[in-house]
Request: fold
Amino acid sequence: MNFKQVKVGVVQATPFLFDKAKTVERVIEWIEKAAKVQCELLLFPESFIPCYPRGLDFDSRVGRRTDKSRAHWLDYWANSIEAESEEVQKIGEAVRKARMYVALGVTEREPVGGSLHCALFYFNQDGVLVGKHRKLKPTGLERYIWAESDGSTLMAFDTKVGRVGGLICWENYMPLARMSMYQQGVEIYLAPTADARESWQSTMQHVALEGRCFVLAANQFVRKSDYPERYQEDLKEEPDIMSAGGSVIVSPLGEVLAGPLWNEEGLLTAELDFSVLAKSKLDFDVVGHYARPDVFSLEVKGQPPICKI
Reply:
């Protein structure tokens, strides 16, 4: 029996913070870099467009908003991206030329109403935006800037490189959300994040071992100096390196295949050997011989069927 060998890439990079147009160009540059080394699937970090606004509090006050908070919100809102936009079309064209699958972390702006969502956009090899996952539960002060989602975007895709799906950042601490992915038979599990703690590495290894899947985790590398001058006063107590990265690729047996990458930009790549997927199921299959459907069941309200792309 012949098993697939798939080359994947994980981008750890710095966006042009709060600058949608320039960050779109940066996304395209990384797609082109990945194409040169023949990646078939490429993952970008959480909210790469326009940035993850680490260190900012949007001047939040319980029961009160300020002119400053609305100005910061406007800056972030204006540089967030809509699914039906010229920017997405431009990225899609770069994806089409590269002939790879791309998963891109963005802050998505609703065209009606204007709410923001932390989202993962999925592009197929033809450069078509075929689906998106929106974070179910923003964490901490993220709830001030991002809306919640529901089961309708807990998506998985059948692709030429395998079955692909995933969760964003601390959604990966939600056991039932993880199980919703495992039930879809995800083989390549995507985990774009903003968590640069060393303990995140243990989480990624746990997900790989639990789901018996390949795990790709992407984070940004960001320094305080990367923020626009207008935010420097708000960040004066922050360290020089605000996100050290920690992007990593892990096998279904918990072995680190690439990374973790710290304190620099870079493209991690790995060859995924799908025979390892089969071998890993010998002693554990979370939705197969190690499941107990006579005891447990999980209903995911609104979860769409697996999409073939």
The first helix runs from residue 20 to 36. The CA atoms of residues 14 and 221 lie 5 Å apart.
